[in-house]
Design a protein that fits this description.
- The complex is a heterodimer.
- By secondary structure, chain A is α/β, with parallel strands linked by helices.
- Chain A has helices spanning 45-52, 93-99, 111-114, 121-133, 137-150, 156-159, 169-181, 199-216, 227-233, 251-256, 261-268, 304-312, 316-327; strands spanning 3-14, 17-29, 34-38, 61-70, 86-87, 104-107, 187-191, 219-224, 236-241, 244-250, 340-343, 346-348.
- Chain A starts with a strand and ends in a 15-residue tail after the last strand.
- Chain B is mostly helical.
- Chain B has a single domain (91-319), classed as Orthogonal Bundle (MetI-like fold), CATH 1.10.3720.
- Chain B has 13 helices and no strands.
- Chain B has helices at residues 2-29, 49-59, 65-77, 91-126, 131-145, 148-161, 182-220, 223-230, 235-265, 267-272, 278-287, 291-319, 321-324.
- Chain B is globular, with a radius of gyration of 24 Å.
- The chains are: A alpha/beta, B mainly alpha.
- Chain A binds chain B through residues 53, 55, 97-102, 105-106, 108, 110, 113-120, 124, 127-128, 131-132, 163, 165-166, 176, 179, and chain B through 222-224, 226-234, 241-242, 245-246, 249, 319-322, 325.
């Protein structure tokens, strides 16, 4: 394991109360692996990534619980001793700054606003290189040119002196990636890296990220709402809903046998090229307000299963299910079903998922 | 860039003509005329109709305003500002001896206020809502609410009454200035500058500091600040290299916009402190309907302001690459 997130909980204090944006989320990513975190806007996927980097603006945000363990590469430590992982949430700011950009790098969507408009792209890359690799200005610039070349920017020795506004959207995202890679990070967190781009440029950026992963063996955490991107890139997937992970499995399984009704709904809402449709399928309802999550399983108001059963209005089976999904509060005040492995490496958080009740350990 | 500069210069010339034409008309339309004001009826002096007509003809005031304006412009082309109607000295000489004092005061006030307002504004933004921000904000707001001339009255009265002998309240030099040593002269000048500079600077300071703060806050909220933090930069570098650098753009604009008001805004203070600047010269010239002095000062101020605006735009291009490569 390269990075392990355990029980991460992040809150935002608002005028109307405390909103739990990320609620006890756990996942892990291995070296060379691409883990996708998918979900609708506001499901907490970006907040999860920002929490890992400790970039949550405080106040109003605060990380209230959990651990983020960054493991050292096995065997790298002198004498083969087992180096203990560091908990990114508990180390001092100074140490965290040595991790940011160096061991764990992050790239953002909307590369126009994420790049400083008054600094050349070269200067922005060089800044990170000089900070973490201690190179002098000239070597750092040479290294920046190399990086720009690696991410596929033509005439990098010229482009290095360009300002962000002189580049196209795709080029800017390449610059962001070059900046992220500048200090050979072990983990790259990519927050919606292709969202702001044209479809063809998206494909190029995906290609590039895959290539770089293969070359460097770094782990990648991909934050996205785009299942197409997930299918093309990810090895494993965590599906988030309203601040919690509702399903996690390898990409193949998520697409072939989704277990959670939310995941099924997401896949069902994808347009199909092999079928004609009058309308796109949607998941009814809206993402709940994080200040007022519904009781029981927080997905139940939008859940196909509970809605169908409620419409039936009776019967032992439906009463039993509704009781469990809507009112069950035995695990915690919210009463959400915990994420449990129902088969090897396939976790789901739904009382009604096959094998859930008899399922293995809570993840 | 070349085309841009030429374009801007042409616009400046047209603007200049507009400004002077309006000033010329307005001052002539004001009641009273400079010849009649040469004599004081309260002293029992009177001017014969003949003398009056002769003097008017001498200054060309008997001509229609349009003719006068064209004549004035023609002379201006040879850099001749004409003579003052009240004391017959060349207008240019009168301005030349006054202008440095006003410029010195303006530059000093702008410089000091920037030196203080940028750090306080930035620090207030970084510590938004904390004690420092609240305290400084309250203090500056209080200062901003009191005009400079009110403080000037208080200070002048205080110095005169206490009395603080060593602190002069008018003029720029003490008697016997010529006999002082170099350091003595510097100290003497500094004393004369002290009160008027305070009265001139603090309203600017209050305003600029809030301006820097709000712009810095806006910069801090931008995505590239998050990117800078994600690189592992410490807060200081994030704020100064990424935040302040972007805040400089609006500050440069503000300075350009403030230049006219700073140059002309000193008039009241100059009169109160008997400061030999062009503000006071203008004040006196207007009250004596000294048309040519008024026109001379307006022209100079107009040129300075237009040049200032042009320089601001060029400086803008220097701090903001998007403008540099724009058109």
């Amino acid at each position: 394991m390269l990075l392990e997130v355990q029980n991460l909980t992040t809150e935002f204090v608002t005028d109307d109360g405390v909103a739990t944006a990320v609620d006890g989320v756990s996942w892990g990513v291995r070296r060379g692996e691409i883990l996708a975190i998918v979900g609708e806007s506001g499901c907490g996927k970006s907040v999860t990534a920002m929490s890992v980097m400790r970039l949550i603006p405080t106040p109003p945000g605060r990380i209230v619980g959990g651990r983020v363990l960054l493991h050292s590469e096995a065997g790298v430590a002198a004498g083969g001793e087992n180096m203990a992982p560091i908990d990114l949430l508990s180390i001092p700011d100074r140490e965290m700054r040595r991790v940011r950009g160096a061991r764990v790098a992050m790239i953002f969507q909307e590369p126009m606003s994420a790049l400083n408009p008054v600094m050349t792209v070269g200067a922005q890359i060089v800044e990170a290189i000089r900070l973490h690799r201690g190179l002098n200005r000239r070597d750092a610039y040479a290294s920046a040119v190399d990086l720009l070349q690696r991410v596929g920017i033509p005439a990098p020795e010229k482009r290095v002196h360009d300002y962000p506004h002189q580049l196209s959207g795709g080029m800017r995202q390449r610059v962001m990636i070059a900046m992220g890679l500048s200090c050979n990070p072990e983990l790259l967190i990519a927050d919606e890296p292709t969202t702001a781009l044209d479809v063809t440029v998206q494909a190029q950026i995906i290609e590039l990220l895959l290539e770089l992963r293969d070359q460097t063996g770094m782990g990648v955490v991909l934050i996205t709402h785009d299942l197409g991107v997930v299918a093309e890139m990810a090895d494993r997937v965590c599906v988030m809903y309203a601040g919690r992970i509702v399903e996690s499995a390898d990409t193949q399984q998520i697409f072939s046998s989704p277990l959670h009704p939310y995941t099924q709904g997401l896949l069902h809402s994808l347009p199909r090229i092999d079928r004609s449709m009058d309308r796109l399928n949607v998941i009814p309802g809206q993402v709940p307000d994080p200040l007022h999550f519904p009781p029981g399983c927080r997905f139940h108001p939008r859940c196909d299963l509970t809605r169908r059963l409620a419409a039936d209005g009776g019967g032992d089976r439906s009463t039993e299910v509704l009781e469990r999904c809507i009112r069950r509060t035995e695990t915690k005040p919210g009463g959400d079903p915990p994420l449990r492995d129902v088969s090897t490496d396939h976790g789901v958080a739904c009382w009604e998922a096959p094998g859930y009740e008899s399922g293995g350990a809570t993840q | 860039m070349m085309r841009y500069t030429i374009h801007r210069l042409l616009l400046a010339v047209i603007t200049f003509l507009g400004i002077t034409l309006v000033t010329f008309s307005v001052i002539q339309l004001a009641p009273g005329d400079p010849i009649a004001m040469q004599v004081s009826p309260e002293l029992g002096l009177e001017m014969s109709q003949h003398t009056y007509e002769t003097l008017r003809a001498h200054w060309g005031l008997d001509q229609p305003i349009s003719t006068q304006y064209v004549r004035w412009l023609k002379r201006l082309l040879t850099l001749d500002f004409g003579r003052s109607i009240s004391d017959h000295r060349p207008v240019w000489d009168k301005i030349a001896e006054r202008l440095p004092w006003t410029i010195a005061l303006s530059v000093l006030a702008m410089g000091i206020s920037l030196l203080i307002s940028i750090p306080t504004g930035v620090y207030s933004a970084v510590r938004k809502g904390r004690t420092f921000d609240t305290a400084v904000g309250t203090l500056l707001f209080a200062l901003y609410s009191v005009p400079g001339y009110v403080t000037a009255i208080v200070l002048i009265t205080a110095v005169a009454h206490i009395p603080i002998d060593w602190l002069p309240i008018s003029g720029v030099r003490s008697e016997g200035f010529a006999d002082l040593s170099l350091s003595g002269r510097v100290v003497d000048l500094a004393k004369h500058f002290l009160l008027i500079t305070i009265c001139f600077t603090y309203p600017l300071l209050a305003f600029q500091s809030r301006f820097v703060r709000s712009n810095m806050l806006e910069a801090i909220g931008q995505d590239y600040i998050r990117t800078a933090r994600a690189k592992g930069l410490d807060e200081r570098s994030v704020m100064l290299r990424h935040g302040l650098r972007n805040t400089l753009i609006p500050i440069v604009t503000l300075m350009g916009l403030m230049l006219p008001s700073v140059l002309s805004g000193s008039a009241i203070l100059e009169v109160m402190f008997q400061w030999p600047g062009i503000g006071r010269l203008m004040f006196n010239a207007i009250s004596q309907r000294d048309y040519f002095t008024v026109m001379g000062i307006s022209s100079i101020v107009a040129v300075v302001v237009l040049l200032g605006t042009l320089l601001t735009d060029l400086a803008y291009a220097w701090v903001d690459p998007r403008v540099r490569y724009g058109g």
